[in-house]
Each structure stands twice: as structure tokens, then as C-alpha cells.
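Slide 14.
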Amino acid sequence: MSTKYIFITGGVVSSLGKGIASASLATLLESRGLNVTMLKLDPYINVDPGTMSPFQHGEVFVTNDGAETDLDLGHYERFVRLQLGKKNNFTAGRVYQRVIERERRGDYLGATVQIVPHITNEIKELAQAGAKGADVALVEIGGTAGDIESLPFLEAIRQMSLELGRENTLFIHLTLLPYLKVAGELKTKPTQHSVKELRGIGIQPDILICRSEHPLPDDERAKIALFTNVASDAVFTSLDVDTIYKVPRALYEQGLDEIVVKKLSLNCQPTNLSEWDSVIEKLNAPTADINIAMVGKYMDLTEAYKSLSEALLHAGINTQTKVNIHYFDSEEIEKTGAGCLSEMSAILVPGGFGNRGVEGKIATVTYARENNIPYLGICLGMQVAVIEYARNVANMGGANSTEFDALTPHPVVGLITEWKDEDGSTQTRDSDSDMGGTMRLGGQECVLTQNSKAKEIYDKEVITERHRHRYEVNDRLIDKLEDAGLKISGRSMDGTLVEMVEIPNHPWFVACQFHPEFTSSPRDGHPLFESFVKAATEAHNLILSS
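Slide 15: predicted structure.
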């Protein structure tokens, strides 16, 4: 069977949840036994999200093959049992870069390089390469209908529909139905205009999904159908829900996957949502209630830690625990101290870059270590744990990372190329080097230490987790830290890089250089987060009993 394509676009406003809608539909099709893949096409000029501010773009999701991608790919992997990669997310910047490289090589034989056909052909080529081998490819177009940046992408998918045939392609448009409280009405005009915008460039949606706070009355549904030229049974609503994991069943109950299967003539089995029903059942029946502090510097925009928040939720689902995440700004802790964490069952310090707020994170580690509060450090959260231990336990005053203090007397964390050799010489990274794509990225194997908590948690000799960092614990200073009681519980396969540390005489103090949140899912969870949540529950119960 040739690959069928479902193109998902958005209109009226941004942040409607195209990624969740796309992932939910993919979940329904996967449950029917179809081989599904997903792509995200982003119209911005950045080559990838790797150097974009979390305040503007949210989290950078890292795939197993080391691609720095849009956070929607995180939703895709959490909803659908698939492992995505570099081919599943590309930007206008990457497209233009490839076209310009071809022009410089003379591949176009002197032709005038234009948006049509050269840019659109590149988009089509990349999309089809990412979809190769799948029964169904869901292709989400970033941005909003009417954005000037999206036009080449919309033109490309219009051409793909023409070339592949309407029987092999389907257009789904996600819109907003605003509710005017004063009038007590849902307004359909923005949806009508959004579809008109698409039709003006040659795209007629087959299906509409209308985001709304209120159910869509039949007469309003008929009105939308009339003015958008979409059959009324293909106009669906997506109501606000308390968890995104309820969206697949909500769309299934309206028959979304059934109409998609019919329109694309897909031969598949009936929908089976038993696994997802189990997830919701456990989510709705917690037996414990805990408070976890997440201490970082991007707390005004929690989308910067989307996968991490979801991983804690997954751990709660799989341990039947209600996990309440409380976000604390590390800069505030720098100013006022860590006493604000006194009501927390456990503490987590996530990854990050730059020295802003780092002393607040170190103070947080001290608070967790001295008060026997379960602590999980991830990426920078491990590095500040090592810095804190070096300063306050291993008597290495002034210990720091070279990222924050290039002249620190004890560089317990640094760029690999900045590590001091035994003769005292250093190799320094070129200051003119590009930042983008220069980190240690993607899935890396890690050997766990025997008789460690990490080994107990994973119950494996070797694990694979995803990385995104430039700095590592300085292996030359590890002996001093180990002599002071810090345990190295995970190393890279060649033994040169520290991947996990823990404090044996602490109830639960584990930190890792990698990002375990990128491989957590609601159905399967993740052993590290589940162990952390269990430790938090035990700490919470201990406080209650005392």
C-alpha cells in the first residue's frame, strides 16, 4: 500500500493544539493496526530550534538520533509508539539552506532559483523522505493560515495532493470557535474566514476540528458546513479537557478516525483504546498526593519543561499518585534562600544554560542534601549537584563549572576540551565555533555501576538515554569527590564520561547528565521518575507520621 498523507493546518489563532490533535488522530490510527509516522514542518527561518530561546519557543525535544526538534515531536512520541528522528521535523531555514547549497554546487544548471518550483520541490522531497515506509503519514504544518511564512509549505502540500491524488491525501484544518459570553453564542465567522484563506490558495479542507469551550449545536455545525464546503459529519469539536490524554477518546467518540479511514480507503481493524482507557483510569484514581518542587530559571514559561512535567505525570499515573508540580524561580531562591521548599515532598532541578540563577540551584541542592529530601538532578541539575558536593562536602572551596567561572580553582565541570591533562595543559574550544548543533546530542549508552541505586532503579547493566549538553563532570577531579562519599553510578561506554551520580547515605539523591524525560510515555512511564515519585511519597508519609 502506498503511503497516505494527512495534512493538518491551523487557523484563526496560534496555540490551538494542532500537535495534540495530530498525535491523538495518530493514536487512533495506530490502535487500528496501521503503521503511522508523523512530521512537523515549521515555517521559521531558524535551521532548527536548538539555539532558540525557551521563552519564545518552549522546549527543544531531542530525538534518539540527535536532532533538536520542535516540542510537538515530544507529543508525537508520547502518544504513539514510534521513534522519530531528523527526517521528521524540518524548518524553512533548513529548506532554504539546502536549496542555496544546491544552487552553489550548480545543481540547478543556471536556472533562476524561485519559491516555486525549487523551494516547494525541496519541501515535498523532505516530506516524502520522512514519510517513507509508513501506511499513513500525518504532516502538521506549523503556524496559522494567512501567515506569510507558511505560504511555501501550503503550496507544497497543495501540489502533493495534486500529484499523489485526492484518494491518497486528506486535509484537516483546526480552528477556534470563540464564545461570546455576553451574547451566549459560539461565533463561526473566524472559522469561515480561515477556511476561505485556505481555499484561496487551492486547499479545500476535508475535515474541520473546531476548538471550543462549549459543545457545538447542530445548527451551528450545519452553518459551518454550508460556508466552508465541508460535510457536516466531517465537522468535529475539540472541547477543553483536564488532561491531553483524554483527547484520543473524545475524538474517537465523535467518529474522527472512522471518517478518515473511509475517505482514505484504509483497510484496517477496529479501534482499540484499551491501553488509553487504562491510563485514564489510573490517572483518575490516585492513592497518594505529593508536592514536587521544580527549580529552574524558565518558570514563567512551563512549556520550556514540557517533557519533564509530562514525565512526572506519567510516573504519577503508573504509581497511582497525584503529582502536584510547584515551579520555583532559582533567581528568587538566590535572593531569599531555599526555605520556600519546606512544604515539598521532593525536589527536581532540570537542565538549563547560562549562569543566571545557578547559585539558587546550588542552594536548592544544599537544602535537599542536608534535609534528606529526595532529589533528582537532570543535566545542569547533575552539574550543580556535583558543584555543591565539591564545595560543601569535599572541601573544594570555590568549585564551579567553567561555564560560570572560567578561573575557578576547582573546575569540577567543564567542556571536554577544557579538561586539564595530567601535565596541567588544557585544550580550549574555539570561541568562534558555532553554537548550533555542537552539543553532545541524542541517544548514548551508559554503563551502570553494580550495587548502586541507579542499577537498582533501571535493573539493567546498560541503558540508553538522550543527551543535550556541552559540559561534563571533570573526570580528573572525580577521585576527590568519590573520596568524600559521592558515588559515580553511571559512565559512558568507554568509561571516560560521568553520566550518573548519587549519595549513598541519603534516602534518595540521584542525578544524571542525560534527559530521561525524552523517553517517558503515559503508557510505559520511566523507571527513574517512578522511583523518584515513590521516594517522594515515602518522604511525604514520613512527614505526616511525624
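Speaker note: DSSP finds 18 helices and 23 strands in the chain.
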